[in-house]
Structure prediction request, 380 residues.
Amino acid sequence: MATIREYETAKGKRFEVGYTKPDGGTTRKRGFRTKRDANAWSAANVVAMSKPTYRTQSDLSQKLGPFIDEFLARRATLAATTVANRAAVASKWITPYWSETSLETLTKKSVRAWVESIHAAGAGAQTIQKAHQILGGVLEECVEQGLLTGNPARGVKLPTVVTREHGYLSAPQVAHLLDEAQERDRMLIAFLAFSGLRFGEAAALTFADLDFANNVVHVRRSATEVRGELVLGPPKNGKARQVPGVPQVMEPLRRRSAGREAHDLVFTAPEGGMLRLSTWRRRVFAPAVRRAIASWPASDFARGTVLQHFPKLTPHDLRHTAASLGVSAGATVPLVQGMLGHAKPSITLDVYTGLFPADFDPLVAKLGDLASGAGIADRL
Prediction:
């Protein structure tokens, strides 16, 4: 039931509508110049309140900032690196732009304008996609709470991420890289190139994880650097796995294990302790790659090969190299998936589709038999 009351202002007579909200509370809407306007608004409001999508002005005037903070605070199911990355992206590209925005002003147009704004401010395509994913998650929770009728971030076009071409090494190129690395660093480079472990997984290995009798590596943990601190956790997809160990690498590791305790780290920093990717990349890997690139043309490995150049590499390219070497050795998609710890075979195919040859010969032969039996060629 609504009531309409007349009141006086400095600018003359006005009308207000008093009404009861769906939650039982009472409120009013003021400022109507005529009683007819007040009646019209009241009638429309009665219809609006009967719909499940109805929101009060106080609901819609809420700022987005608390919802962003609440979304980022949920971390029980997330890895420490994911939590840190989301916080970093949100602090630079989301909170400054959206924290003071009220729910009632959120539109797809405003989200598109934000994408253009952060792109102009220097955010790359991958960063924009991450920021959009976070914002979309925040707004989706607002939808679930009944504060928004739809997610304005959904369907907004984003810049395409141009993926860097993977760097693959042949076995001779791995050997050449080892020649250009310091002696103490060669074991880890060879291990990464033939096992496919992520750097953090290798850094967390202990000698208890190495089964020398069966040439098997048990991947149970991963070390990740989060805001300057090393954090131990499960592997990326949360599951432990077993990886084949190449005897030519496992045997030197077995010799290294002599006199070591089962809980000792297999690979350590020069001063002891766990390796950090950021330091190892800068001090060890990048200088070795630069030397390998410079010396490759004159190397014995380069003679008699079509590989005229030594590729620029990141440490993660050693993982790609392991996949390439595995495929060239006859590994199937499920085997490569298991070795790399991908959650699904489709991920392996998406990342390494170019490595798996398309063997059409058996299919062509069978289709040819069908065509011959039906006399297709005779009719052409």
Observations:
- The chain has three domains: 3-54, 65-144, 171-355.
- The chain is about 45% helix and 10% strand.
- The longest helix spans residues 125-144.
- The mean pLDDT is 86.
